[in-house]
Amino acid sequence: MNEDQGLWQVPDVSVVVIVYNDEARLTTAVRSVLEQTHRSVEVVIVDDHSTDRSYEVAQGLATRHPGRVRAFRLDENSGGCGAPRNRGIAEARGTYVLFLDSDDVLERNACRNMLEAAETTGADLVSGLCVRVHVDSRGGKEVKWYPWLYTRTRTLESVSELPDLLVFDTLSTNKCYRREFLAREGLRFPVGIHYEDLLFSAQAYAAARRITLIPNRVYDWRVVDKAAAKSISNRRAEIANFAHRMEIHRRVDRLLADRGLPELKFFKDVKFLKHDLVLHLRDLPFRDASYREEFAAIARGYLESVDRAAFAEVEPIHAICAYLLQRSDWDNLLPAVDTLTNRDKISSPLVERDGRVYWCAEHLDDGDDQERALARRVLDVTELGYHTKPVEKMFLRNVLTGYEDDERAGTVRLAGRVTNPLGVVPPGARLTGELEFGARRKGVRFQTFRFPVRTLRHEGEAIAWEASVDLARGLRPLGVVDAVWDVRLRLYVDGVRTTTRLTASEPGLAVGRSPVRPRLTRLVADHIEPEVSARGHLAFRVPTREKVDALVGRGVRGAPGRLAKAGYRKAKRVRRKFTSGPTKIRIYHEVFSRLPVKRGLVVFESHLGRQYSDSPKALYEEMRRQDLDFDAVWSYAGRPEGFPADATLVRRWSLPYLAALARAEFWVDNQSYPLKLTKRPRTTYLQTWHGSALKRMGFDEAEWKLRTRGAQQEQQRVLDRFDRFLIRSEHDVRTLARAFRLKERTLLRVGYPRNDALVAARRREEETGRRERGPLAAGLGIPDDRAVLLYAPTFRQHGGKQRRFELPFDVERFAEEFGDRYVLLVRSHYLNHVVLPPSVRGRVVDVSAHHDVTPLLALADGLITDYSSVMFDYALLGRPMFFFAYDYEEYVHEGRGTYFDLRERAPGPVVRTEEELYVALASLDEQVVKYREAREGFVAEFGEYDTGTAARSIVDQFFSQWRRA
Amino acid sequence: MTAHDSPLADSPGADGPVAAEPRRDVFFVSNSVDELGGVTTWSHQMARLFTGRGHRVHVVGITPPEVPQELGEIPYPTTTLYAGQPPRPGRAREASMREEATKLTALFRSARPGAVVIVTQVWAMEWVAQADTHGLTVIGMSHESYAYSKASSRFHRVRRYYRDVDRMLALTREDADLWIGQGMNNASYLPNPLPFMPEVPSARTEKAVVSIGRLHDQKGIDMLLDTWAEVAPRHPDWRLRIYGSGEDEEILKKQCTALGLDGSVDWMGRTSDVPGALRGGSVFALSSRGEGFPLALMEAMAMGVPCAAFDCAPGVREIVRDGEDGLLAALGNTGELARRLDTLMSDKELRDGMGERARANIQRYTTTEIVNRWEGLFGFLER
Question: Which residues form the Glycosyltransferase subfamily 4-like N-terminal domain (chain B) (predicted)?
Fold first, then answer.
């Protein structure tokens, strides 16, 4: 297009470019507009009275691009972005207006995409994706700005349809405004206050009659990371900034109230607690008392206006911090901020009150009922499950209380206090400890250095410690490459280790220097000094001498450095490759599988090595009972604890594991050995499987059906490895065997070895007329006069990584109503886990960690489940069963579907609500009688081959040759 | 306003009488001028429509087809660059590409200002990219769903060769958004036009479910049979008529026998009379693993036959408004598809209502509508 044309026509878009003392980058910004794929665009440059040559540059651009670029200059500097942008709005002629800062750039298609969206939908406002480009990062790091708002094109009639937009994307620059809309609503930026974008964007969102979001990248926000770190003199400005931020928040709140959008204020409050406040709180431990007070005064003022209900919508630690800040409880707030920064850290002693666990003992009884209720709601951390963790799984706060260095002697004396939550470290415990120094950089962690902790004792609610560390002699860094050393205190409680970091954020606490002798000699460095990491933890730095640093810098960037680095990386690559999955599979096939099959070698596995349980365990134990002459190998994933001591234990996927599988005469497992491993013809695979099916399985599932023919054949090859597949009833034949497309000759109609014990228990009970409780009952502390109920729901997939399983009923209420008659055992699926409050202790017990469910079934006088296959096994006991199918429709229809309608065939009441469940649970005896026939029918249909002889029968058929004479 | 509306319907300046669209030179560049397939059908349909609007159309193919398609009389010129297959990738291919690209350049240079090049397949773009397109508007198209493209080598080639075209077009907004998510900031979309609009719809009196498509893995006839095995016992008087032929015919017939469905399934073979096939049915089933903007669905709806379909592509949920003019089931969930079919087969009134709404709703893809959108796009890209 001829540039002159622009002079006579109304351009589609005006881009307002503001500049202040940025002569170097202005041209780049303007060029990004002139080079837009959409041509009908003009540039309006507004200079905020720069003191450099910015205005001359702007005028030059205007001269070179007449009709497309115009330049304006404010009469005096405004100190912000508001005034120049307002001037730009006034000067713009385009149908639409965009804002661009002189240090940023527009994506080439930005105008075309925003215009197309605006013209298609008629929106007043179009917003696109902004990307933060870290210009001085090595790899050109890019971070998308709230990308979840911009995953797809969508049009909102009002911002209240997507509160997150107003709450999170507060930029004014990634947006395209209909100019007539700005005029109609009189939209202008506030002047004389920071954070003008927040108010302007909120105004625009609230006023827009239609908003279209597009997933296109439109704006590059160019971030310079190497800006000088904030110095102390900036602290004043920091407080002022914070005050500005709070003032803007207040104005936005007023705007929302005026516009009749109070529900948005709520979302904004939630975000304030989760993000805005957190940003500032994290700095608090590093600041002095006067800063903290000033900050708190400003924050408290604003917190008053935050809806109390918002506290319930954020993570507990967010709410706790806000609450303690409001109460000016510094003693509890600073530890809480430590947890805010280090999420898995337990930084408060905690307190148990009335069966719940609270962050601190203070405030629980403050003020009137309402205040008390708020405090208890906010400070309640029961759900976090701290009280269920053993000490070795805890990451405890360890605050440094003393730091003294003797430069001449080269020693540092340290003292601190380790939090002891809920007295997890008992008063009589044997305590030892050591301080461990390790290089922070992973590749150079050749050696760690340990120093004993001299004293360790209980002191109030904490463990106090003291140590003296001889850095000069005891710590020998290499030098140059390992400049930073992290410190950890390893505390042993009766021999059990828990590792802590030393929190030293208090300003002025850890200062000084000690001599040190690097192995590369003192020519590279001669002293070590403490520093504090961004997370507040004590570390030490060995500053490399400047000359050496320069020399090394040159070397590293030069040819020798490149060579050394390349060699190192290559070595690492080789190592990685050797230990990679594909290599191991090759070793399995090309090396191990060439060795002869070893007679009598049996490899067992249960649930991919996660457990020692189920039919493989029952079969293994039967083989031991009969004293067969064979070599047993058990596979474990994770840790070997709980696996049998009289078998060879191999870690799943390790080389010994693969060697054992390649040479085994038998494979026994209940789920699947690694898919890629070919089974040798001489190896017999006994697939015990792990339960009859209610849910559709295998090729009856959508996910399997969808696969291409090739992928289905691949899957079939995996299934065809099974030489024998255990069957409990003809139902299994119709469902599992068909779904896995198994051949008739593989089916072994003997029942499940794991269920032999259940059949035996029932017989014993019928013969003696008594139900025996084994040692498990005593181990779980179950009194004789209580009946045992087992709650065993099936696995539930929740979005994301969240593995917490919310119980569908109130355990506290259960304990209240039934605690004097029943003990409830809760066993969640091994992929889910539950947290029980202390209030139900002794009445509701979490048994999820038990590998094997069979003893639990045998113990339970009644079973509560939903769709889990334990129903088929438990039925063998002939005891009452309850089906708590609170989400039946969702589970059956939205999920993968079932083989039969549970509601028609269940051998017990199918209930939908907690109320119904409690009514049904009221009388076990009644249920025993009422559903007797139904249970018998259920067993006949789904467990006809479970006659208590499965393990023996399998031994007879496959292992009888190993009987000792 | 919905996503189905024209992107430029609300253009400012629409207050006065709309100026007549300028007459343009339009080039279609495809792998072949006349290879058998949907893209060929589509490009010649569009070429005829543009010609009808007074544009000067030229259809260009890179190579002669392996399996040709009968085009009939065509009112515009066509050109095929290579006489045979191009050399295998390598230096010889590159040299030949430069040579053939000069032919393209010559064609493009002879065009009047405002000319448009529509590249219908990304392979053809490799030649166009080497030609001089200065002053022309270049549009690159992906005639399949994003997911289907992603699973093939075309995914990387689309991102490479369409990166700098003036507009890359997918078939639906949803597909375009996914391409944008991959950094294709020039992506937008335009749906396919309805192939035909029959005067007389199906009477929907025959108790038959119809399926039309190649007997190939992609069309998921194996899943349709699994589905039918669940529905058929409940409707012994209904038949499933499967039109189409292909490499999987034998396996599928075996599966049909194994499922005991021989008594209710008719293997109809390939048909050239799609309206006729649809007239013989009251419900249409689409069981594909993947699709783009399936013509078969549009044809069925144009015939007033309500559809039950796997929700296998954005194009499918774009065409069928679930619950209003057809029913969708989660991809691969045969139990659900069976329930959808059962719903339509059990309720004549529902079937008629949905069929009529389908016929009405599908009008939004009439040729007039789609050609207007194309002309609007040409104008927009010039601004």
Answer: 37-192
